[in-house]
Amino acid sequence: MATDPTLLQAERRHLANLLEAVQRCVHFLDGSERKLPFPLEPSLLEVRKTDPELFEPLAAVNERFAKLQDTLGAAMRHALLLAGERNDSFLKVLTFFVKAGVVENTEDWQTCRTARNLAAHDYEIDYSAIAEHFNTLHGLTPMLFDTSLKLHEYCAENLGIAPADSELRQLFHEACARRLAS
């Protein structure tokens, strides 16, 4: 049975596109976070409770944090498929990437997932809880940025796959350097 080389090329392109989407997520999450005065204080949120200049970046952080983690997960699953490894459960995907040094540990990833899920389904009006939530996301962001960098390195070194957009690649590396240095 002959294999179709265009099928493999399409799968490789799909991973490159997912990696580019990760870069875009990192860039825009970084941009949204830089508009906010972290650590957030409940009193600031209460005083500015109707200020779109504050609450629009907060909404963007919620959305972009979730999008980054979802896209990273999809890219890890697809990279594992192209590496010829089993990816039938996400726990197996995580375990593989912990062993490969891409993900620090499964607990941190699951903590991010829990925080992300709470954001998607919780409509909090207590300003202390809102501040705590966003401060938690801000504290978890470096782990997602570090994982993003390491996944890009893994895919380039082990699969020979990287996103094509050099401008976005530069912005991605700048955002990661900024957050990982702080």
Textual characterization of the structure:
This protein is mainly α and 182 residues long. The chain has one domain. Helices cover 77% and strands 0% of the residues. It is built from 7 helices and no strands. It has helices spanning 5-33, 42-47, 52-82, 90-99, 106-121, 127-159, 166-181. It is elongated and about 65 Å long. 27% of the residues are buried.
Quickly describe the structure.
The protein has 182 residues and is an all-alpha fold. It is 77% helix and 0% strand.
Please render the helix and strand layout as text.
Blueprint: H1 5-33, H2 42-47, H3 52-82, H4 90-99, H5 106-121, H6 127-159, H7 166-181
Helix pairs in contact: 1-3, 1-6, 1-7, 3-4, 3-5, 3-6, 5-6, 6-7
Descriptors:
182 residues, mainly alpha, 7 helices
> What overall form do the CA principal axes indicate?
elongated
The main sheet comes to: none
- Helix share bin: over 70%
Secondary-structure content class: mainly alpha
Order of secondary-structure elements: HHHHHHH
Low-confidence stretches: none
What value does the average pLDDT take? 92
